[in-house]
Amino acid sequence: MRVVFDTSLLVAAARSTNGASHALLSRMPDARFQPVVSVPLFIEYRTVLLRPENLLERPPTQAEGFLDFLLSVSHLQEVFYLWRPGLPDPDDDLILELAVAAGCRYIVTHNLRDFRGTEQWGIAAVTPDGFLKLINKTS
Fold it and tell me: What is the dihedral of CA 18, 23, 24, 30, to 10 degrees?
């Protein structure tokens, strides 16, 4: 199944190896799910992960290496139709549009309230822990 990862998931995983975000990203590649990215979302990932507060003394090349890996296991989806405004935070509309274009069932995020209303497109916003539980049930 295809899923979209909100940037908050990547930031949480970059900052801590103890949480569900890191555990989820550590499973990739996984036959039970495939991340979906678009060019705008990938640019956002890169911009945010390369901020000094998210590098945590790591060299930028380490974050770039992770992004290269993430891209290699992801489905690159073009988005031809914009659903704006669709969400409470307009900055998150690109994630909803990507999820709709790719036929995703889930957006994985730490900011559930930012994705209120995705249900009208048949997409559920779930936390990283919630998504881990979902994929573990399908094992």
Answer: 170
Distance CA 82, CA 129 (A): 29
Distance (Å, whole) CA 54 – CA 134: 28
Query: Whole-angstrom Cα distance, residue 29 to residue 42?
Result: 18
In the chain, where the domains are located: 2-137
pLDDT tens for residues 16-43? 999 999 999 999 999 999 999 999 999 9
| pLDDT tens-digit readout, 43-88 | 999 999 999 999 998 999 999 999 999 999 999 999 987 666 678 7
Q: Which amino acid makes up residue 80?
A: F
78 Cβ contact partners less than 8 Å away, ≥ 6 residues apart:
38, 101
Domain 2-137: assigned CATH number: 3.40.50.1010
Residues in Cβ contact with 4 at an 8 Å cutoff, skipping those fewer than 6 apart: 35, 36, 37, 41, 95, 98, 99, 102, 104, 106, 107, 108
